[in-house]
Specification:
6-stranded parallel β-sheet; Quinone Oxidoreductase, Chain A, domain 1; alpha/beta; 6-stranded antiparallel β-sheet; 2 domains; 15 strands; Rossmann fold; 28% helix
């Protein structure tokens, strides 16, 4: 039985993906579930975080967003039984890859998959759904009537965040990085209040948002990264991103800025401006629930909420065509470079 693994380099900047033969899984441990994987979504691997967590191995398992059928359960498992259909996210320290026909996972990382949800939809939506719920409900406390700016809304994450914000009755503004992205956003229903095309570099995001909100500013901003320095000092991949000053400028009084920029630097004038507005900054860490065992109950509630909303048709994930396992290595190499817009899902 083959599984996909990655081998980090000495600098952790480049990694090599390879298939490895795995031994037959042992009898299921007390709180673990043996899972026949039906679909596994692909997401970039944060090698920097693994190094910070002192997780040092020769080979790391690949594939964490899984959906499948329970084959066997440990003696202390209380939530599942054989033949249950489940979905979940394997923890960072998982010994078994999700990109394998059979894997093993602790029951506290799984929830039941609704019958109406397909395997590929379940695996492809679970991670971005958790991120969107975390950003909108837990970090920014979204409520009806609020205005929300979602940067790069045509991404897999942005598409789900837009739909969930609409569901809560928010007024949504989004940015598009290309003509294709703009067309995708304009097809979303209910329609977005304003699509800001930043592909040519001539449109000012802050001015557009202030114009749309009558000069009041937006209540919530969810970025996709920001520029911290001048354009001359930033790498090319960041040139389409707004500057941190633009985000602060377009925030309204009492606004919430949810950032994915882990190295955000705010100078005293930036902090003073946020202070005058009574605004807050929160960090959207993909692994925040994974790193806090004390929050497992809340995490399971979020997983279930994501599946319930997916089943009810409140949102639909942005998925590419499913791929077979033998193409997973090549696909992961592309995903790791952040060159895919749609979510890649391996179907077994």
């Amino acid at each position: 039985m083959k599984g996909l693994y990655f081998q980090p380099s000495s600098t952790n900047e480049e990694i090599t993906f390879l298939f490895q033969e795995r031994d037959t899984l042992p009898v299921t441990d007390d709180n673990f579930v043996k899972l026949q994987v039906k679909a596994c979504a692909l997401s970039p691997i944060n090698t920097k975080l693994l190094a910070e967590m002192k997780m040092e191995k020769d080979l790391f398992p690949v594939g964490r967003e899984v959906a499948g059928i329970v084959l066997d359960v440990g003696s202390k498992v209380s939530f599942f039984q054989p033949d249950d259909e489940v979905v979940g996210i394997l923890p960072l320290d998982s010994e078994a890859p999700g990109l394998c026909e059979v894997t093993q996972v602790h029951e506290h990382y799984l929830v039941h998959k609704p019958e109406k949800v397909s395997w590929t939809e379940a695996a492809g939506a679970i991670r971005d759904g958790v991120r969107a719920c975390t950003a909108l409900y837990y970090l920014s406390h979204l409520s009806p009537g609020k205005s929300v700016l979602i940067m790069d809304g045509a991404s897999a994450f942005g598409t789900i965040a837009i739909q969930l914000a609409h569901h809560r009755g928010a007024k949504v503004i989004s940015t598009a990085c290309s003509l294709e992205d703009k067309q995708h956003l304009e097809r979303i229903r209910p329609s977005i209040a304003r699509v800001i095309d930043v592909s040519n570099g001539k449109v000012h995001v802050a001015e557009s948002c202030l114009e749309e909100t009558g000069g009041l500013g937006v209540d919530i901003v969810i970025d996709a990264g920001v520029r911290l320095y001048s354009k001359d000092d930033e790498p090319a991949v960041k040139l389409q991103l707004p500057h941190k000053h633009d985000i602060i400028t377009l925030l309204g009084v009492g606004g919430h800025w949810v950032t994915t920029e882990e190295n955000l630097q705010l100078d005293p004038p930036d902090s003073h401006c946020l202070f005058l507005k009574g605004a807050t900054v929160a960090f959207l860490n993909d692994e925040v629930w994974n790193l806090s065992n004390a929050q497992q109950g809340k995490y399971l509630c979020i997983l279930k909420d994501v599946m319930d909303k997916l089943s009810a048709g409140i949102f639909r994930p942005l998925l590419d065509e499913p791929i077979p396992l033998y193409e997973a290595k090549a696909s992961m190499e592309i995903v790791q470079k952040n060159q895919e817009r749609k979510k890649q899902v391996v179907q077994f």
